[in-house]
Structures are given as C-alpha cells and as structure tokens.
Design a protein that fits this description.
about 170 residues, alpha+beta, Aminopeptidase, eight-stranded mixed sheet, 4 helices, 8 strands
Length: about 170
C-alpha cells in the first residue's frame, strides 16, 4: 500500500470509493462526494490523500481548514474518510489518517477536529474537547486532537461544503 497525495487522474476513483464506502448511508455517498468535490473546487483541500494498492485507489481522506471562534488559526477538520469495502481489515483507513495527521503537523497546525466514532478516532488521540464545539453534533462525536498548547476554543466553523444537504 502506498499513501500519496491525490492527483488529477484520481478524482473519478475517489468518487467511486466515496460512493462505495457510504453506500449504506443516507444519500448513498452523494453527500460525501459533493463535499469533497466542493472542497476541491474551492481550493480548500489542505491535504487530500489516497491509498494506492496495486495501482488502484483503495481509500481517500480529506483535511480542510476549520476555525475555532477563539484563537482558531491553523486548525483542520478530518473528513470524509473512505475505504473501499473490498479492502476491510487491511489498515487502509489507519494509514490514511496517520499520514494526514503527520502532514498537518509538518504544516505546524495547532490541531485537527473530526466528527465520528470515538472508538475509532480515539486510536489516533482524538478526544471530546469541552472547549471546542460543533453545533448539532451528537454528544461525544465531535472530537479534537491538539498538536500545540494554543488556547483555541469555542464554536468551530467548517467550510460551507459540510453544511450541504442531500437534495431529493
């Protein structure tokens, strides 16, 4: 497995992985695909990585800027993260997250937030942080990983792409 930055030739494969990974979610992956496409078009994909297995895209992770309302510089949000369902248990998701977090640290990020399963994201050091909030997030699902001792706090604002609703 090779973790690398996405390239122009990967866009269709990334869309396919997102659709397959989120096939059972509301919208069947269309919302996640639209989110990544919008971030890409707005030049808001700070880090966009693919897992390449034998020349095919087996997974994708996106990181885009996020802004806590107080002292909110150099924060990012992880998501979406998608792994092709034909590649379970191969460590694709973990490899993508670890590589992405390293890339953020190399950029001297203050931290990263994620909305997701605490049992999964806790493995990478994410924890529910009472100083950082996301309106409407289910209890305990919005988590943060601080890289520095910056006093960042408050409501976190994400790119508008994350607020898009699935259209019928």
């Amino acid at each position: 497995m090779w973790i690398r930055e996405e390239g122009p030739d990967d866009i269709d494969a990334i869309c396919n992985v997102l659709r397959r990974a989120f096939a059972d979610a509301p919208g069947e992956g269309r919302l996640e695909t639209r989110t990544v496409d919008t971030l890409r078009l707005d030049h808001a994909l700070a880090v966009s990585l693919v897992a390449d297995i034998d020349g095919r895209v087996a997974g994708h992770v996106a990181f885009s800027p996020a802004r806590p309302s107080r002292d909110g510089d150099a924060w990012y949000v992880l998501g979406p993260l998608a792994v092709d369902p034909s590649d379970p248990g191969r460590g694709v998701g973990s490899a993508l997250v670890h590589a992405g977090l390293r890339a953020l640290q190399e950029r001297e990020a203050n931290g990263c937030v994620v909305l997701g399963d605490p049992a999964y994201y806790g493995r990478f050091g994410f924890v529910a942080d009472p100083l950082l909030t996301l309106p409407g997030a289910p209890e305990g699902m919005f988590q943060a990983l601080r890289f520095t001792d910056a006093a960042s706090a408050g409501e976190v604002v994400l790119h508008p792409a994350f607020g898009q609703q699935e259209k019928p």
